[in-house]
Amino acid sequence: MGAILRAFTSEPGFTEDFCKVRDFLRRIHDPAYSTANWDWVRWEWVQSLPYLDETKLSRIGVWEDEGRVVALANYEFKLGDAYFSYDPEYACLKRDMVEHAMRHLASQNEDGCRALQLDIGETDYEFIEIVKELGFTPAESAEHISVFYNTGEVQPAPLPAGYSVVSMAEENDLHKLNRVLWRGFNQPGEAPETEIPGRIKSQSGPDFRKDLALAVKAPNGDFVSYCGMWHAPDTDYAVVEPVATDPDYRRMGLGKAVVSEGVRRCFAEGAKVAYVGSGQQFYYSIGFEPLATTRKWSRTW
Fold first, then answer.
1. Which residues contact 36 (CB under 8 A, 6 or more apart)?
2. Is pTM, for the whole model, over 0.85?
3. Tens-digit pLDDT profile for residues 32-66
4. What is the Cα–Cα distance from 150 to 238, expressed in whole angstroms?
5. Vertex 236 angle, CA 153 and 292, to 5°
6. What is the predicted pLDDT for the residue at 31?
7. Which helix (H) or strand (E) holds 202?
8. CB distance 229 to 213 below 8 Å
9. How does DSSP assign 39-89, residue by residue?
10. Which residues pair with 219 in a beta bridge?
């Protein structure tokens, strides 16, 4: 029986269909990240954030073979971008996935002009030829993936006197968390209280673990750096997402310390590698190495 396309559920939240896709993404995880540029952590994290346009969920394409998910074409937060995941045995679906994205995942302006940006692995040459045939051209932007291999004990990064690492399992102060994430992502001024419901939602995913959500606590009690770590018991890898440091506390080694501690905890649980969706020198200084790159391809019609 061949793969059959259906719409993802239109119901927001961590539904049975959400879990079905999450489990598919875990199943096809490629240790070399050569075929999958959208892992289960990203899937769950996006579904946990208030920025997601939940009114378009039914536009996500899911391919199943006898009830088993084998491919996915989805957007991130809103229409206009597309990401693809597939079981290697169903690579024949690549063209169908792009055509689905063109029909259902493109954005549209008031003049009726449609635009779509795809995320394709730089070494997936078959996929590249398909998107070129369908009129897409490479854009300047790209996404980078880096890896930290578990080759032994992770060396802890030192903290200045009076600073400590705490987990949200120990002190889940949403106001402190809101402030470090707001300021850490360079938002202006003080963090508004209206962001608190979004912080609560960000911890609502079925695989979110407060013991792996870590913050550096300053002598005055504020959270000043943050690192979210994701590790599921039935996987042998961890993922870093997100990382932020208050601008007033940068260049003190706090970000390095909290990420190193997060990686250390996941390795202690049995993770063989840790991934981060970044190619910044900051991560290389901790021990990450470049692994893979996905290139953006765009078309307007």
1. 25, 28, 29, 30, 85
2. yes
3. 554 456 899 999 999 999 999 999 999 999 999 99
4. 11
5. 90
6. 60
7. helix 196-202
8. yes
9. -HHHHHHHHTSTTS-GGGGGGSEEEEETTEEEEEEE-SSSTTEEEEEE-GG
10. none
Structure tokens at 228: 């979210």
pLDDT of residue 153: 80
pLDDT over 90 at 215, yes or no: yes
Rounded Cα distance, 204 and 195, in Å: 15
Q: What are phi and psi of 228, to 5 degrees?
A: -95, 130
> Residue 83 and residue 100: Cα distance in Å, rounded?
11
d(CA 271, CA 264): 9
Tell whether omega for the bond before 233 is within 30 degrees of 0, i.e. cis. Answer: no
Q: What is the pLDDT of residues 164-205, one digit of tens each?
A: 999 999 999 999 999 999 999 999 999 999 999 999 999 999
Residue pLDDT, tens place only, 250-277: 999 999 999 999 999 999 999 999 999 9
Q: What CA–CA distance (Å, rounded) separates 34 from 234? A: 21
